[in-house]
Amino acid sequence: MVELGSGKKVSPDRRGSVPFPAVVGQQFLKTGLLAVAANDDLDGLLVAGEKGTAKSTTARALTDLLPDQRAVTDCPYGCPPDDPERQCADCRGRDDPPVETRPVPFVTLPLGASRDRVVGSLSVTDALAGDAEFNPGLLARANRGVLYVDEVNLLDDHLVDVLLDAAASGVNRVERDGVSVVHPTSFTLIGTMNPEEGELRPQFRDRFALRVEVAGRDDIEDRVEILDRALDGFSGDYAEETRQIQDSLLQARDLLASVTLPDSLARDVAELCRDAGVDGHRADVATARAARTLAALDGRPTVTETDVRRAAEFALPHRLQSRPFEDAPDTGDVVDDHFEDENDERDADQSEESAEAADGDSDEAGPAACDAETEQDAGGDGDESPNPAPAGRDGKTNGEDGGGEAGEDGDGVDGGETGEDGDGVDGGSETDEATPLVPGQPRAESVAPGAGTAPETESPNAEGPDGGGRATARPSTDGRGPRVRTERASPTDDVDAAASVRAAAARGGDTVESRDLRQSVRAGSASALVVFAVDASASMRGPMRAAKGVALDLLRDAYERRDEVAVVTFAGDDADVVLPPTDSVTLAARHLKSLPTGDRTPLPAGLRAADDVLARSNPDAAVVVVVTDGCANAGSDAP
Questions:
Q1: How far apart are CA 47 and CA 188, in angstroms?
Q2: Which residues does the UniProt record annotate as the domain VWFA (predicted)?
Q3: Among residues 205, 207, 282, 292, which one is catalytic?
Q4: Hey, how many other C-beta atoms are within 10 angstroms of the C-beta on 146?
Q5: Which of 233, 252, 258, 430 is 20 to 30 A from 471 via CA?
Q6: Are residues 267 and 126 in the same domain?
């Protein structure tokens, strides 16, 4: 949760290396960053895109826009002095604590950070002095600020679990090394990632309120401008632009509480998210909050349909459902389809209302017209009204349409209220319902006749203890990997000195005894690599469809076990590694589906290339899947 102050200017030592306005283009990314800075309830932004597209640069430049905040001076958590409900236990027990104005924390979480560094631990310095004092970690420093993770998709699972717990509860609980501490940790999580290096766990991805996709600039003028600014060291004067953006941000925060979301648009949000097939209700809430924030950033007190459309582009992309190896439907198409259908229904309703109004005018023509119409409907011979036929047709049409309209209302969804504070938000990601068919999502391709089923391959980590098919986490035997805990050690073990001192301090001793010795337990994993060596020669044109079907079935197995995959193709005189080892099986499937065929079959080269991939990766377990017809006719010994 980002808390801004009263608008004081940014301190010079807090400036990012590149000013926020100096980033060329990337307006979508900039808007997403401003949205999470303007609305405390938008508690996360995921930035995904190819490398070299200013993801990290723009995120770090956000520090230029965050004014100072008031905090308790000597509190390690930076508690707000005027909000007891969000203070730590020590601050709540103080009558008149000293207050200071400090920069909004912007804390970077390194990928290699230990669990102790993140959650905090017993202070070694104090332990050596005989005191058992808690040393706050990165979560404490990030309270009321921004926690930034570069390459968040590569973050170790044990740290992901810590962030999930902290984000869900708003507090950090530490129960280890004789320390029992609970402190507030409310932060905005900003993560950047390259999808080619793997995706996030679904439950972690859903914790980001918004997601932004970025790409490099194609316009030559923009690329030249990027060159000029980079070569010039971004030394231009951006102070005035920065001040204007900062003022706009502060005004948006002041206006946000009074921005209203009309009931009709709240219903649109609910229906849009339902029709998109997203799990739970977090998407509804995030879309509604983002729409209000975008309106506030534009200085408007009421949300419009345009705001909802833009908000959905931020809140839905990472929540749309897709089958394994298939791209999720385009968010813009889903939004456009919904509002086009909505506008068609609105036009139909307006036509019906116009017809009803015309019918009402006919009813007001007088008793004679009514009597004449009644007699005509009854088959009588009375005097005819001047316009009996139109009245009779309108009456019939309105009666039929009225019945249809009632049916539509009966089938409507009671979505007028988004329920931002409802209980459904917390449980949204835990539903066990089958994944619905997503609008615009192609059905799974069937394997060609004769393709058969994929051969089964066993993996030592096929059934992990977490039941989710992830690679099994196990204690590392080579001393490598992230440290997750400590355990009692013998004098001959690799002793963790800091943990041993903390154990002695927790016991109350002034010296470290053998019973205090601790050793680190580091997380390892039984990594598995599946290398697909695919024959792309001309002789594979016929059987390639069946071969691709078998390969995709094997990819599905790798996806369920979270194995890494690599793709090697061979044709002509050589072999190519078209996809180095990665845990993104979607990329592997994409390469297989678009694989062309032609030329000769250098089977030996393909096998050597696959062996080279295994040698460089050195996985714990490996499977090489060779997809070929076996008609090798190219190589060093070929005629």
A1: 13
A2: 529-639
A3: 282
A4: 25
A5: 430
A6: no
